[in-house]
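Allow me, if you will, to draw on your knowledge of protein folds for a short while. I have a record of one protein: its chain in single-letter code and its fold written as discrete structure tokens. Could you please explain, in whatever detail you think fit, how the structure tokens follow from the sequence? The record follows directly beneath this note:
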Amino acid sequence: MFDCIILGAGLAGCVLAERFASDGKRVLLLEKKEHIGGTCYDFYDKSGILVHKYGPHIFNTDNETVWKYVNRFSDFRIYHHRVLGVIEGKKVPIPFNLESLYQLFPSTYAECIENKLLDKYAMNTKVPIMELQNQDDPDLKYLANYIYEYVFLHYTQKQWGMSPEEVGGTATARIPFYISRDDRYFQNRYQGIPVNGYTDMINHIIANENIHVLLKTDYHKVIELDQLTHTIKFLGLPYNGKVIVTVPLDELFEFCFGHLPYRTLDFKFETFNTEYFQEICTVNYPNNYDFTRITEFKYMTGQVHPQTTIVKEFPKQYDWKDKSQEPYYPIPQEKNTILYNKYRTLLDEFSNVILSGRLADYKYYTMSETITNALGAFDKYCVDNIK
């Protein structure tokens, strides 16, 4: 019998598997996909180029504990991600910053706006455009409206299939103007890519004899949560160990209250007989085209190869009936939070269940946040055991 059964072998599930196994617990890791790592999974394509199956993943964090944790399982190639956005026919740095300003506006007007910004804010400050929209100064209002129109509005409509207002104010609140000439997409202290890829790193995370992995496994056929008795059965027998849930709660409870909505992505991979396709890793297309961005993997991985592979991302609504689709982005609307909380109430009736991860929490997490939450869930388990 296993001391701990984990539903889902994504990043959260694998980190928790490692923590419990290192604590001497016998762990069963169940995964419906044919691979570990969840959306962090990467592999070598037919041309021998290392690609990220579910879109680009750049590890970035200010959390020293998390950085030390991942470095136990892989060396990291230091990589600072940069993104260009196609705006009015020009490719400018994203997030919108002083360099973007000078590339799009006449220099005298750009200088005027820069001086007004620096009168109100310190250098290297990220100012939400909602705050700029509320300023009395017409030039700052114009800047905010320009960024909203050309950088955010149409990109959001493509990404979410709805207007920014329908998505909610929290989405708009995150759009910054970065008062800086630092053109990096992230400003975190630690940034990088595992030298041999994420799959290799995660394989090292779960390389413990106490961890047993079952891929291509429907966990409903292995684990049963009885809502009447609030007990758990494993292969039809009573189970009193820990169950860690990293899978969607609506799926776990067989959609008894309805389906939690997500946005998903279609990926179109293309390989070219040239060393590089574009001038930078990622180019965003906020306005024209059906796709939102193009990513070229060799910039991230540092791989030397005479060919190159890119991926285009096409957002669309998630259809739970289509098993080829992945639920990527929880939709941050109040009605969805209410529905999620109904499922969460069902889970709260089970005393030996731990919840962790993007799907289980119905929240978008970075990789750093995923690991932080997983480590925190394990620490709480240890504290509760002491009590």
Notes: The chain is about 35% helix and 25% strand. The longest helix spans residues 138-160. The chain has a mean pLDDT of 94. The first strand starts at residue 4 and ends at 7.
